[in-house]
Amino acid sequence: MMLHSTLALSLLLIAFTSNLAMAIKKEKRAPQTLSRGWGDEITWVQTYEEGLYQAKKSNKPLMVIHHLEDCQYCQALKKAFAENEEIQEMAQNNFIMLNLMHETTDKNLSPDGQYVPRIMFVDPSLTVRADITGRYSNRLYTYEPQDMIFLIENMKKALRLIQTEL
To answer: In the record, which residues are listed under signal peptide (predicted)?
Structure first.
């Protein structure tokens, strides 16, 4: 009888500690405040300057998403962006990522105006890629939720342009 209860207690203890370990592991990952809902698995830089530095250092393009919290178009784009596995994976592995809720002082990031949402690419040579545009002639750098395939193509283009030009 004693052996039986010791065994039961041991199993209970093992179950408890492994659950505790999983809870601690989950807890340990700090909530990603910089993602602002665009993708918690992505490492986000805090400022444009930090993004430029990281892009140059890592030889990865910088992707800048301009958005506002109370903009319904931004919210819709954010949802589509966050739910797209291919975009999330590319953003996580191949890009320096920045999402901004304010304008930068770099006028090159608003070649056709300061609207949101707006997604632009900057390559590691710190050149703003004004040639990588979305589908809309009135707002060149805007994407809509149904444009994720187009955004993926532009992300691939940003990656291709580095290899061919540097």
So the answer is: 1-23
